[in-house]
Amino acid sequence: MRSRLSTTMLSWVITICLLAFASSKPCDNEGSNNELLLSLNKDLLRSLGRQEGLPNPSVHLALRISSYHNLAKESEHLIRLNTQLHNDIQNSLSSSPSVVGLLALYTLALKSSCYDLNTVTFTVSDTSETLLTHLKKQMEKEKERLAYSHRPLTNYYQYSLGVLALCTSGIRVNDHVSNKLIKAVEHQYLKQGDAECIDTYAMAGMALQCVKDTGFHVRNAAELDTALDKIKQKLLASRRADGHIGNEFSTGLAVQALLAMGSPVAECAASMEAMRTDARSNTYHNPMAISQILPALQQKSYLTVKNKACLNEDDTLVLEPIDPVVVLPSDTKVSVIVEVVTSSGEAALYSVDVAKGSSLLEALELLKGREVGFMFEKESSLWGPFLSVVNGEQARQSDRRYWHLSSDGTALSQGINDFKIEAAQKITIKNTSY
Ligand code: B12
């Protein structure tokens, strides 16, 4: 009798526990997901204060399409974009063959702040024209290149950014310009070297979806639909078992594109979970990476800027002071072999011991200081320092070459500043064409 009673009681207790667990779990998840979003948002906001070089338009864009704001800090940043970045682009317009990507990101950033784009002008050779006129002209130059080559002056990622920026600003994109992107999707030209570039497919998806939504592109409506379908299939087929689409750094753009192209949120749930896991393990410490994943985690895409009204915005995001974390170099040393392979195929080997956890950049600087014949130079970019010259040899983007980085034969998914050396390994720096 007593044992029957206790069994009944036990099953009651278990049932109550299970019910409590089942009803609390989704709420707990939601709470911790919101906390994560806020923390990423704050990380981006904090990065504004640390920016050494030019203000970053991609970070501005992500802050502006977020649901949470610190309007004072965003306004300050807008002024910096409008002066410092503006002047930099003004200088590049007359000296560089194309600045279409940066011009497009600048346009998207201003648009996300509801800035009147018709009042923004650049003066080149004593002629003043609006930002949007310059962007249209740059796209024409890119398109002209495509008449005799299947690659634009820059790359299809920037070409897509250009289409997206014009389209979300309410400018009718020339049919010939969008057709070139449609053809590139059809012929599978959106590649980085031999591999398909997921980031580029994602950006092309957002650009072409915007063009479709305007309803102007009627002449080749069927081809436009086929290209959009192909992009969607490509993104879904690149989904790995762990949820990432491409790699950790392309998943944000891929999810943005899928949502923009009408995929239900549930279809992206595993990819969003993969990004949340990455974020919790601090994979996204580069502000540029956060700027590409945060909209996706908020179930938004860059297309949102098109209808942004900037009215009644939240203004609750505050930055609590944080104690500066001093990371002392580890006492443990690890050996790194650095192999440099020049364009002629000649290889040179160097070795250096570095504190565990050092960045590759720190290792290269240490090696350079040893005066063993190893030298390098870097250029700044939105993602941080880009390795441009090694042992006096420049891998020029104008020749479609770059210094490719790999560790023990596996390509690095981060650059010299973000990649940390945790164990002994061989780093290969190879002059490669793309
Ligand atoms: C195109 C591209 C390239 C081209 C750029 C040249 C060209 N004209 O096409 C090439 C092939 C050279 C390239 C190289 C690399 N890339 Co790349 N690249 C891109 C891509 C698809 C678009 C960049 C772009 O045009 N942006 C638009 C313009 C307006 O912004 P920008 O900052 O001014 O663009 C310049 C820089 O971004 C720079 N750049 C390109 N890649 C990288 C990577 C790093 C780490 C840095 C610091 C700079 C940099 O070249 C761009 C053109 O001049 C992005 C995708 C993305 N999600 O952003 C990946 C991306 C930025 N690249 C990436 C990586 C990992 C690399 C490499 C480190 C790969 C490797 N294993 O060697 C190398 C850089 C090595 C070095 N020498 O320092 C990652 C960076 C992730 C991270 N956390 O840092 C991204 C996000 C792709 C991904 N999903 O993994 N890349």
Please describe what this structure looks like.
This protein is of the alpha+beta class and 434 residues long. The protein has two domains: 40-307, Glycosyltransferase (Alpha/alpha barrel), CATH 1.50.10.20; 333-433, Ferric Hydroxamate Uptake Protein, Chain A, domain 1 (Beta Complex), CATH 2.170.130. It contains 13 helices and 14 strands. The site of cobalamin (B12) has 39 residues, from helix 4, helix 6, helix 8, helix 12 and strand 9.
* Portion in beta strands: 15-25%
Briefly note the CATH topology name of the largest domain.
Glycosyltransferase
Shape: globular
Main β sheet profile = 5 strands, mixed
CATH architectural designation of the largest domain: Alpha/alpha barrel
The domain tally reads 2
Strand order of the largest sheet: 6-5-14-11-12
Subcellular location: Secreted
Organism: Pleuronectes platessa
Main location: secreted
Family: Belongs to the eukaryotic cobalamin transport proteins family.
